[in-house]
Amino acid sequence: MIPALLPTYSRAPLAFEKGDGVWLETADGTRYLDLGGGIAVNVLGHAHPALVAALTDQAGKLWHVSNLYEIPGQQALAEALVGATFANTVFFTNSGTEACELAVKMVRKHWFERGEERTEILAFTGAFHGRSSAGIAVAGSEKLTRGFAPLLPGFRQLPFGDHDALRAALTDRTAAVILEPVQGEGGIVPVPDPCLKGLRDLCDETGALLVLDEVQCGMGRTGKLFAHEWAGIQPDIMMVAKGIGGGFPLGALLATEAAASGMSAGSHGSTYGGNPLAMAVGGKVMEIVSDPAFLDEVSRKSGLMRQRLEGLVAAHPQVFGTVRGAGLMLGLTCIVPNADVIAAGFDAGVLTVPAADNVIRILPPLTIADDEIAEGVARLDRAATAIEAVWQ
Ligand code: PLP
User: Fold this and answer.
1) Residue 180 has what pLDDT?
2) % of the chain with per-residue pLDDT over 90
3) 97 alpha carbon to ligand 1 midpoint, in Å?
4) Residue 20's CB: how many other CB atoms inside 10 A?
5) Residue whose CB lies within 8 A of the most ligand 1 atoms, among 129, 183, 237, for a mutation test
């Protein structure tokens, strides 16, 4: 019999009752160090006092009014995002997938309004842009799309890292190119800065719009507010979600004036997107994370985390292969099945997240302290030792 809860997830047999910073606790009081951060969402950890205050204060005043009315918190957060990025305009969504939906619509409308028949959007193998019909069509993998045909047309996936294929495919008929500066679900694979620069140049030469998906790698995760800043480039459109709500469902689509020029009144909407509760939390997250001192700390701590993980990998060559990623978005390739490493982590009291390519993801709250980094890696070390005992 089908369970009451649609069984689309294979869940770990763990239920948490409360959280505090990087720690999660089950009902029996067992504590787990959360190196997964709710899949890169809890940028300020669990129950951050400033976010709890922002949410509860707003909850006592006003939850929802709809986008039929002005929402001052939206204006404020949009201005903060515009002030801190390439963007001239912002639309608030409830998730990354919805940001992807709008990105696709915005690209198509942009070219439609200009009277140009440019509809093809290029993406890359290993990409992940969400689970909606547009999201799976963009990424195009067998895993995501199997059984869901007919797919939304107009997308082509190029082999990740194949510059010749990209040069051949990207023409003055291309509507846009979409990619994650650091692939997340694909196994924590950063796009090298020179490649991002080269891609920007190709888009400029052909007029194609550059859409960056910073749902997972954005909001301070790599030590800059957005990952593309490391390459010194700017997109035309950018998807944001996860970290921007710190755990409250929130996403955003950022765009230049030119890219967004087709989106007039009535062309898109959302009942909940940018409601007062989301804006109260998102505004506070933005205020804390966009502080240069906060971002410098992320960079410093990511160096420490990486160094410790390199030590872990060196100590357990039968379990781990390499460390890769950027900032506090790190991946460990595994020699044994990644599911075994994650399960051994549960026993050792540490949480990590699986990704493709047999990787475990390390996406801790950006507020993780130095001693918590040491403790997290010590717990991973215990997990690896337990695996070695079984596999030897
Ligand atoms: N894009 C990327 C890069 C993601 O990692 C995700 C989620 O994992 C999404 C889009 C979809 O976001 P959401 O799950 O909030 O709809």
Assistant:
1) 98
2) 99
3) 6
4) 12
5) 129
At residue 391 the predicted structure's pLDDT band, cuts being 50, 70 and 90, is confident
- CB burial class (10 A; 0-12, 13-18, 19+) of residue 157? middle
Q: Write out the two tokens for 179.
A: 């990619």
Report the nearest-CA residue for atom 5 of ligand 1. Answer: 216
Mean pLDDT of 243-272: 98
**pLDDT of 219 over the 80 cut:** yes
pLDDT of residue 392 exceeding 90, the answer is: no
Its CATH class, for the domain covering 16-34+293-391, is: alpha beta
Closest ligand 1 atom to 185 CA: 5
Q: How far is the CA of 382 from the centre of ligand 1 (A)?
A: 31
Q: What is the pLDDT of residue 351?
A: 98
**Topology (CATH) of 50-289:** Aspartate Aminotransferase; domain 2 (3.40.640)
CA of 129 to the centre of ligand 1 (A): 5
DSSP string, 134-195: HHHHHH--HHHHTT-PSPPSSEEEEPTT-HHHHHHH--TTEEEEEE-SEESTTTSEEPPHHH
For the chain, what is the mean pLDDT?
98
Do 16-34+293-391 and 50-289 share a fold? no
Domain ranges of the chain: 16-34+293-391, 50-289
